[in-house]
Records
---
Amino acid sequence: MRVLQYNLQIKDTPHMEPERIAEDTSYLKANVVVLNVGGIYAWYQSKVLYHHINEYLPAGRDLLQELIAAFHARGIKFIARFDFSVAEDTTYLYKPEWFARDINNNPYYRGEKRMGNWSLLLDTCSLGGYRNKEVAVPVLQEVLRKYDIDGVFLNAPHARECHCSRCRALYKKTYNVEMPDNAAYFDPEWLSKCMKINIGNMYKAIKEIRTDVPLVLYYAPFSGMSKSFGRIDRDNLYDRYATADLICTESQDVLSRGINNLPMDIHPLIAMKAGELPGCSKRPFGIIHSCPGMDWRHVGMPPAEYLPWMAQVPASNGIIWHSVTGFCETITDKRILESIRDIDSRIQNVESDMRDAFSFCDTALLWNGSKNAVGWAEMLVKNHIQFDLIQDYIAGDIALSNYRLLVIPGDFIITTEFIEKLSDYMSSGGKVIFEGTDTETLSKYKELFGIEGDVVSSENLVASYLRFEDEGEGLADGIDSDKIELRGKVSYCNLESDNQILMTLIPPFAPYEAVGIPPERASLPVENTTIPMAFRKNIGRGSISVLIFPVSSLFMEYGLSDHLRLIGNLVNNILGDNLRLRISAPADVYTEAYQKDNKVVIHFINEMGKRPLIDNVPVHDIMIRLRIDGKNVNGVESIIENSSPSYYVDDGCLVIKLPRLKIWDAIRITF
Ligand SMILES: [Zn+2]
């Protein structure tokens, strides 16, 4: 699928020509379209009470019917978009019980300061009649009976924090306590539970009429706070799939937040990895808005930033879903249309290779959506180390033996059962990197780590360093220094004698206010200690490498190449020849590898430069070394940018040189 969503503006309705819109959609290479059908506005003559009909619909015609027919005639599937999250103030006057309430029992208004002749919108309660039996259910069933749609998409489906007496009563019944006034203290499952009840009702309503029509539902890959929706909880995918057939997420590149608040570089890539369920062949949709922030929704993202950003979705096995404001004729920024056509054409070149392909990786990152986990994902991506995410809520059920290396971020909560699983994994050869920044965890499982005596947490260290020790061979490769930067909290501990000490602490040479003055006094008072900062313990045929310093937060905060290289070197050092794929390319070339039948496909995305990208600077001579274990290589092709890679076989490895990468390419290796 290549999906294109037109976010229609009601005032454009009179200018909509179905044949023209369908033709333009075809030109942009989309084969699925998403259009407004119901909810805030009905784009057809609805009979459901309180379902507000778009007043600009042409008289005497059925525009929706004509659109669906025009798309179907061109082989384009039609997904109907509904939004039951808000409703008009006139509805509120008759049915105030349908609306969400804040802590003072007042409704939430949307856009009340908006100028012009617009009615006021108010948020609906996820458990109220509007989002359930009284409006949403009959509207969905009316559309399914009347129109030949191919899918249902619910915009803004998450439950908004609501303090209405109905929600309060269910909260009390569920948890046996009063609902907290502050949403930050809600039970972590509560909002998800409300959503599950609400979408469950809609899902059932859809399937009563047509079992073959899929429901596409949002999932939230990260927790956070939103100005529009309040508290947002990272979704458990099983909860979302319980009431949906397909899932999607949004990876907005909100440049309008300013250059100091850009979304993280690898957002679409992580959102797609987080949307995959082990053992499930369904792929998540990645919605990419065409604008540099919704406050600038009528212009396009600069193509140099937009193209590689979008490419992250298909390159990480997601399905692209373009979201634009208006339709081709009303989109006056033509760069948007050219960029969509460009990416869709590139996708066409790889889609047969990507169908049913699975990731080619040796490493898994345990995932809880935290900042530390994001830091690890960034460090792995920028070292071109291929990895899968293992979500915290299924970590106990996953066969770890599929991976040679497991990375555990600092704030990942480890249970005693999981520690047992980890010991078994290592006994049979598994390798673990453990970011041991929590003193309590180090202390609790000190037998596993080979720690002797007490574990004591440090002050907040500044002006201190990590020193490379002889046993940490290779960790300083490409750094050419005996020490690198350290800040933050660590733990002090002593190790059993058979542990290998990889790095030690060089304590602060001065308090922060005195580091520069005077330089005559800058000498290090202590140049080396035996305080371990990184160590390795062999367990059975495997090992655990423990980093006692917060490397993921150091990298996220300072972005220094030293910490990035250290992690790349550490993985090399641990996996050695077992690391099947090594890529030598700048850190901001992102790579994703897949395998299928007798093929390996490796994607390359060029994110080089300071974001937001202003130019796409080509990268030259990317080197790839793939262990082939005696297989015969049939061919190596560049399938998107046609860049003629050269290759030869050396010592059981296929060595490939990709001469040039502009934006997004993929090479296909056939055995
Ligand atoms: Zn409520």
---
Amino acid sequence: MGVRLVYIQVDSGEQRRYERELPFDELERFFMAMVLSYAPYAELQVKHMEARTRSIKSLPFPYEAYRQGQRYFAGAVYKSIADRKKLFAKAPTGTGKTISTLFPAVKAMGEGHLKRLFYVTARTTTRTAAEEAMVLMGTKGLILRSVTITAKEKICFQDEVRCSSQDCPYADGYYDRINGAILDLFTQETLITRNVLEKYARKHRVCPFEMSLDAAYASDAVIGDYNYVFDPRISLKRLWEEDKRNTAILVDEAHNLVDRAREMFSAELMKAPFLELQRAYKLRSRALSEGAKAVNAAFISLRKSLGEKKSGVLREPPEELLQRLEEFAALAERELAMGSVSSVSGESQEQQLLDAYYAAQGYIRIAGTYDERYVTYMELERNDVRIKLFCRDPSALLRQMGKGYRSYIFFSATLSPLGYYRDMLGADEEDYSVSVPSPFSKEQLEVELLPLSTRYRDREGTRGPIVSLLQRILRGRSGNVLIFFPSYEYMNDVAERFREQEPGANLLVQETGMREEERERFLGAFQAERSPSVVGFAVLGGIFSEGVDLTGDRLTNVVVVGVGLPQVGTERNLIKEYFDGTGKNGFDYAYVYPGMNKVLQAGGRLIRTERDRGLLVLVDDRFLSSGYQQLLPEEWKPLKVLRSREQEARTRWFGLYE
Ligand code: SF4
């Protein structure tokens, strides 16, 4: 019997064919051995599917009752999946977002609308919430296989991520052992978290990251970072179109996806690594050294075009640089394929080459998607040059990356204004939106406004009033306080003044780059009935302003200083300019909406459950304007406007608002 093996070079279409004539019985033995080794896995899958469907059909909602708004939200999720639509959902804290999206998605699976769901998030803590929801549904009888993907750098068993078979025993022989490992894993486990994966990966001596990917392709639910769906470099590529058509993507805290998508779809390159490679490879590989030299030369001619300026915008991506990078990438690929280097300096050179190769490939890939939504800019940094293909509007690429999936559920407590997020996350006109009302009562939250100007030039004068505000809260109310500032500098300034005036205060101040234990210590200090009360100083948009759950009396007062505008900078201005050009309000798109999102997130730390009560104080006179008022949630209104003595002296009209 004639057999033929064909390799196809996907990009060029080039084919290599290998043909042989073999006796029929030999082929039959080969084929049967293959099928027989696959049979136990196929049998396991068939049985699992039957058990899965049965368990979903009889699965009750895992809590005693739906909370206010929860049934409505869950219904909207189910309908969007059934109708193959995207849903943009603003669901406030307390709606129970995780279960309100996972439960209907699982039910849709039971009805045959879905084969698989992805639950993607920006942070590890929200991934844990999804795992917990899976466990909870498991206690109610659900049989569903879910896999959590953890980043390679975090889950790697080695001191250094070097994935070649020479460097890593978990990569060496991976494909010989992975089938047995997956079979063992799937026979024993359904909730495949990081710990579970590590246990089985060690047992079978396979790479835990690769194993998580292999397990994900054969699972019902995948929990992981946004990257695995949206990032062109990392996304799971082995999903067939058929699989995608039966998969729903649940995007938690979707407000984060706008900036994350900008990062994923942008690419930047530095000049220095190419100069270093040019020198390092001079003797080892003349061709590669010349390739790096050509890239370096292209950078130099671009730098010259800047003249005396330190930065500049190029309307078109530089063609010359792109061509040189393509040539360099081909040479680097050949060099890397040639294999191992034993000396220590050789290894570090190889790593350098690998890094430059990936950076070049990233740049080339992004250059391929470059259109009017992009801009190229260049900056001089000390002796180096940085060039960036910057994606100002990620909506079209998000739409493209997500093409083929059955449905998307974008949800967040702060998907506000909805029109902006629909626009930025690639909604089509016929896609659905839903705003779930807050399940909490108005009596739980008091909101006050101290209308000071916190604009950069006026900050000096705000230290006194903010300290007085804190003193008033500490003397007049019980419980701990968390106060957020738009920058570290501003925060430290006020903290210093507060420390001078309240030497006995229980003061905690956020620092840059806090380690896990330090963060835990900071949050751990917020205990109910702590005396004296804790006053935590933190930055807006930082680690304590999102995803922090200080329930009950652990946190009863929150102060947010400023409207959260991002720092004025090149990229923000480029975004503004772009959206101005499309007839939208560029300042709102680049500054106001992302800023207000931080304010809403920080304010949202206060009321987390039906039992929580507290005071939220907003400090900024811009909240008096109708534009900003419109961006505040209904449950924060009406604001009670405060008057400070210092302010009263400066602005006579102020009393009108009291
Ligand atoms: S193959 Fe896996 S375990 Fe080995 S270095 Fe790479 S990530 Fe780490």
